[in-house]
Amino acid sequence: MTDILIGLFLLIGGFFALIAAIGVLRLPDVLMRMHASTKAGILGSSLILIGGAIYLSETEITVRVVAIILFLMLTSPIGAHMIGRASVKDLSSKNDSAESGR
Amino acid sequence: MIPTITAGDTLRFVWEWVPSLGVNVSFYIDGLSLTFALLITGIGALVMLYSARYLAGHVHQARFSFYLTSFMLAMIGLVTSDNLLALFVFWELTTITSYLLIGFNHDATKSRRSALQALLMTGVGGLALLAGIILIGTTAGTFEMSEINAMPGVLTGSVMYLPILLLVLAGAFTKSAQFPLHFWLPNAMAAPTPVSAYLHSATMVKAGVYLLARVHPSFAGTDVWLWTLTIAGAVTMVFASVMALRQTDLKLALAYTTLMALGALTLLLGNESGYTITAAATFLVVHSLYKAALFLVVGILDAQTGTRDARQLFGMARAMPITAMAAGIAALSMAGFPPFLGFIGKELKYAGALAVASEPILVAGAVLISSALMVAIAGIVSFRPFWSKSGTPIPDVKEAPWPMLVGPIILALLGAIFGIFPETLQSIVTPTVAAIVGNAEPAKELRLWAGVNLPLFLSIATFVLGFLLYAYKVQLRDWLIGITTRAPSFDNGWDRLMAGVAAGSKALTRGIQTGVLKHYMYVTFATALVALAFTLFTQTSGIPSVSWPQIALWDWLVFLLVLLGTWLTVVTNSRITAIAGLGVVGIGMAMIFILFSAPDVAITQLLVETLVVVLFAAAALKLPELDKDSFGKRPFDALLALGFGVVTTIILMKVTTGPIDRELTTFFETASWPEAFGQNIVNVILVDFRALDTFGEIAVVLIAAISIFALLRAKPEPQAEEDQP
Amino acid sequence: MEQLLSLLIGVLVAASVYLMLARNLLRFLFGLILLSNAANLTIFVAGRLTPGAPPLIPDGVDAPVSEVANALPQALVLTAIVIGFGLFAFALVLAFRAYQSLGTLHTDEMRVAEPKEQK
Amino acid sequence: MNLFLLNLLAAVVWAALWGSFTLFQLTVGFILGFLVLWMLQPLLGGPGSYYLRAYRIVRLILFFIYDLLMSSLRVAYDVLTPTDHSNPKILEMPLDVKSDIEILLVTNLISLTPGTLSLDVTPDRKTLIVHAMFADDPDEVVQSLKNGMERMVREVFE
Amino acid sequence: MSWFLSLPLIIPFLTAIAAYLLRHSASGKWVSVAGSALGLVASIALMAIVLDKGVVAAQMGQWAAPFGITLVADLLSAVMVLITAITGFAVAIYAMGDVTEAQERLGYHGLFQVLLAGVTGAFLTGDLFNLYVWFEVMLIASFGLLVLMGGKEQLDGGVKYVALNLISTIFFLTGIGLLYGLTGTLNFADLALKVEEIENQGLLTVVAMMFMVAFGVKAAVFPLFFWLPAAYHTPSFSVSAIFAGLLTKVGVYALIRCFTLVFDHDIAFTHTILLWVACLTMVVGVLGAAAQSDFRKILSFHIISQIGYMILGLALMTPLAIVGAVFYLVHHIIVKANLFLIAGVAKRLTGGTEVYQIGGLYKYAPFLGVLFLVPAFSLAGFPPLSGFWAKYIIVKATLDIEMWFVAFIALAVGLMTIYSMTKIWAEAFWKNHPDGIEPRMEKLSNKWAQLLPIAGLAVLTVFIGMNPEPFVQFAERSAAQLLDPSDYITAVLGDAQ
Amino acid sequence: MATYVFLDWAISISFVMVMLSLAVAFIRLAKGPTLADRVVALDMMTVSIIAVCGVAAVATGVYALLDVALVLALVGFLATVALARYAERADARRKELTND
Amino acid sequence: MNSVILRAGARLLALLLVIFSIYMLLRGHNAPGGGFIGGLIAATGFVVFAIACGTEDARRALRFDPGSIAGAGLGIALLAGIIAAIFGDNFFTGQWLFINETEDDKGIPLSTVLVFDIGVYLVVLGAVLSITFALEESV
Ligand code: NA
Ligand code: NA
Predict the structure, then answer these.
(1) ipTM of the complex
(2) If one looks up domain C2-51+68-109 in CATH, what number appears?
(3) Residues forming a β-bridge with B14
């Protein structure tokens, strides 16, 4: 039973992680892509970590997992804000031409 | 001491110096050493007296005396050393002091050039001699010349004889300025005249002759020895005497006659007969006496009149009677007139030449020509400037002060005294000859009148020819100048050689040390690749086996991730993309560490990678964009890189085939908790088992921080700011 | 797996050599990072690989009960990573200052210490 | 949040990290926390006094988790279906919360809510710039944010 | 006992920390001098012990070898440590007259002492990876010193120096990884035993080549020396003196250590390569010097050429050749450091180092002239100075095994060395200053701080030259230890092995 | 037994998914086009790796992996911030230059 | 960095990171962590802070000059090695003291090894900050 729960957490988490990444790839502009990475990304990895916590079922692990998730929720939006700020500051020069080439 | 030696005995003192290398400071005094030592000290004392006045008031007079004294000591050491390496030490010391003395007038470019030329020429010989000495030591088992000379055939019978001989001769010939290694000596006349008199006429240049005499017992007696010395000596002799005639500078004329004398001595030492060796021993003394005297005379002329040009000096005898007298006596000795010692010397030379084992006529002819020229030169140097009436004497010239006169007078008079009382000289000539050829060929008697014989006729012929040459000296000189200016000059050759060395080394260095970092790196990598690949393909065989099935899907994915990150970093022309690519590689590395059980390393890798990104992002703000780069543009770089990658992979695959010795790790695993009280083995290794590594490592980090701080805080110099974009 | 990582190290080495041979100092720095990574990985791989067993001693026992990964190369790599960071940071700042002072990152144009015109 | 609470929090976090809520660990954590707070005082700014309302916190957390789930599903939907985003816009929302921690919470929570993403707060701290995916009616979006997240955060810190 | 091995390492570190913390005070330089003096005392003590007891080893942390890190001093290590301390002491004094206050504030003395510590550590360690760590300590300290207060020239030179040295560092690290992968150990003594058990000896040779390249760069051999002439003429003179004296020698030391103790399994292959490398290094270095006209650039290229002699000694691998290498190593450090110090004084007096643009030193600073002639003629191999014996032993070793051509090269290179030294002498000393400057000694702000170390090192050069016997005997014992490492191995691993 | 198999499969599938997410995010990283896009992609990759750590922890039972995840969560943010700040400043700088 | 959000977050993060770093330092002997990792994490905290609030504030928050912190750290690490001399042991021999030692439990260990690790922590922290601050200030 627990195994199934764990498995579900892992599967759903993996699914959201993948979705987030596809979002980052597919969505049309950088702000939209950020929506994907901040939301689905965090959810996906959090679910997987929770699955892990249940699987390993030790206080120490659980505490750690909670810490990771809180940390992600604290940092990821700040990161998004930083990126957003950078890309919005000047919408006209959004296409960073000098840096864009390969 | 002197009576002991003249009685035919020898003295030997030994101090161990570097016994591990077989080097002793061992002094061996026999007739040969004594003769030289007496010449060195005797002439040396007179020259010093002379130069005390000659250089009076010169700012560097003290230095001069110091060099001269040092030279004298070195020279004495040279001629008394029994140990060949000790001899070599003194040999080189004379080279150095000679260098410093030739360059004494160091403001003049010519002096500096001459000094260098002398140093390098004798230096070449010195190095050859060193090699020769080493080989002698190896062949004979000792460096003590007295012991080697006591082992007949130890060298001549060895397979190494020829190389040893050639090396030793190279040393001797350069030092004694034998043709064609002679050209430094006339240039060495840039030195103050006392130096020319002492070093470059009487003593140092005779060190080569001394060496030939010293090794004579164990070297001579072979055809190579005979012919090399004879030919070199004869050619030098003739060439030098002709060149002497060509000179207008009296000092240079004397320099070339010195060359002639050195050639004569060399020629004579080629033989083993009592005549030739006696001739050599006598002529050695003769020449030293008259030549030093004449040099000093020329120095006086130069000092008192301001010129040494033969074409400007006439009838100075009235103003400088004492000098003129000294010059006259010395010149008569030089020209070989009786009753001066020069006459005995010349007679013995002829006798010696005729005693030469083969081709005596040819050799005697050479001696004849050179001796005749010597007569002419003697006239040019000491007759004309003092007695000739064909020009106006330089006005207001005074006699030189007495300390300058003592030397030439005594030296000249000695030539006369020994000529009249040859038995006084005999007492050291005999042991000298004995030292060279042993008692089997005893020294010949020195006599003014040896009876009517072939040498006497040759002497007379010499005078006749000499007078003729003197009479037609101007025509001859012009003719010679005409020839020699067209002929290639060794001195110019030297300049071309020096220029060639400079240009060649510059070209080579420009080709290697290009100043372009890319070249440096290319060569470095290429060298490493060649070294590794060559070794890999010649020293090992087989291809490493790869067991693919063991590799999990995860591993492939991580592999792919790192690959992609690397690819991105290489192909991008955007800095930030490259940094991101590196970040991906870093993350991939961390994942490898995670997958293969290295959490500490993974965490560190991630942290460090992040800091790298932070630093890059900060620095990139003030750095320019990347230029365009693509594979097509740098095919050779790509090839080198590819080769490097392939070789690295092969080596690593071979190294990791088979298990590793886990002795160390096993110890760490078992000792970590019970003995070092830690459960994280990696950390226990870091802070306990290998704490010293970690200590060094944090020192690196600290120093990096200090250095970076210093780099950033150091205020760039003003001109650097101007160029800032 | 050692073989696969050997291959990977080869790729890293090739890429870094190619980058370091570029004339732009920044590319050199990129190459430097890659090469450092390759060297660290070499040590790691040379110590052989063990998945899923970090060199930690569980509570209550004196030594690892089953085989754990080779700890020594890990310690070495850790040291090398930190040292590499120090060196890299210096190199980066040096490039930065060189650019400020010399006005270029193009190594062909860095000819102050060894100027073109030699007397 | 006053310093004492922060300190206590540090002690708890410490004990939690060790996985042992013993008196010893809590004490060590408290002392350590004190030291760190002392160290970091210049960056924490002046002390403020806040009443911690457990209920509101719990409510906020639950609301937030729900929102996060919803927004993730929304992203999933957008990603998996042919995209049609009628009206993405950048909006400005007046901010009533004042303290750092409130602003942080509000902006972070807004970012984790469906359709909106905090881009910036103006330097005067009075306006929040938000990127909204579906901003047919910008005012409505702003109002729902103010009444939702911001209000709840305000209440927590009242 | 073990502390005698640790102290030469601890003292410079403590000094560095003290000097760094006092970097804004005037006492920093005195701390540096005092620390160097203490370090010298410790090195002398270590030398006395090694002379008395033979190879000594200390297990750091009391973890038995090969598990922990072992510090070990045989005669070679001890003499290198001693010579490092001597040079360090001399340069520390010299720095009082050479280093600016701004440089001191940026931490000059701390960096300098850490450099000494790194060099000392490299000489003392008996562990391959620990050697890498000391190499890095030394390297990063040298980076810092090179660019301290640097202008364009220093930065440019620094870029090349850093780039090439980093590459070599990574080669070294890779080599360590590979060797560990083959043997499972890092301790030199243990390696010496373990390499014999490797089945694939060819592969060991490949790994040996990795080390040869890595150390080759450090030692500045052909064709890996580029970094040296690119950078050594740029930093302050006390820095370039210590670089010139010590840094490349650490590479040579590492080559000697590794290629006598560990990689002696296929001498026919490895040492033949070393032989070629040595000859080319001698020739190219000396020709490079001939092409230069800058005081320090000439000296820099001569470092390369003389490294060739040392490598030659190692390549020949006969007892006498190793004696020569050891003797050369010791002699060269003293002489070359001194020449750079003299170049510093010359620069201060004449305003430059480009020999054609300066002059007058002999006339106005004759004492400096004498001080220059001693190391210069020693370098050129004139007797009775230290360089003569060094050259003599190497040439004899070459002739003993009838390598005529190699002997010819060694001698010819000696001649070219004379050429370069006299170029400096003739232009900077003999010639008048083209701008009429009178380079009088009074121009030095701290005359004795600069002249005393120069004089001291010159006296040492003359002393070794006049009294070479103990040094030759020492080198012989040292060579015997290197060629038969059983004492070394026993000292490190104990009798159990 | 059946549940065991399910968990096994779940782990594998989950792993493949997070790895794929890594790869997909990488594509965005490579494509750009703007700096901000790349930073978003890198951020996404960081999150993916945290997920990988989680899955790997379950798969291997090595909870040290969670420490790695924790560190990554902490520092990944720093890289994002640094790069984003770079992007912003670089933009400003470029504008400055074009205005001059 | 002129960002209200970042500044607010950075304060919190810095606090958490420093605490976390000390935790990683202290448990390093028994679980992943140690002086390096701890020092790097602590440095990360201050770097975040420096980016958000500027290096001037960060320097004030650090209270000591980072270079001096690193220097002191090296000194501490060195002393940890030298202390062994007092006990007649070799350089870098760990000295251990167990408080409350019982038969089952070793109690709370105090050791020079830990002191050494603290030295490592300080060096890494000080050095990394010295580098980043200096670079930040010159950009
Ligand atoms: Na061996
Ligand atoms: Na210990």
Answers:
(1) 0.92
(2) 1.10.287.3510
(3) B26
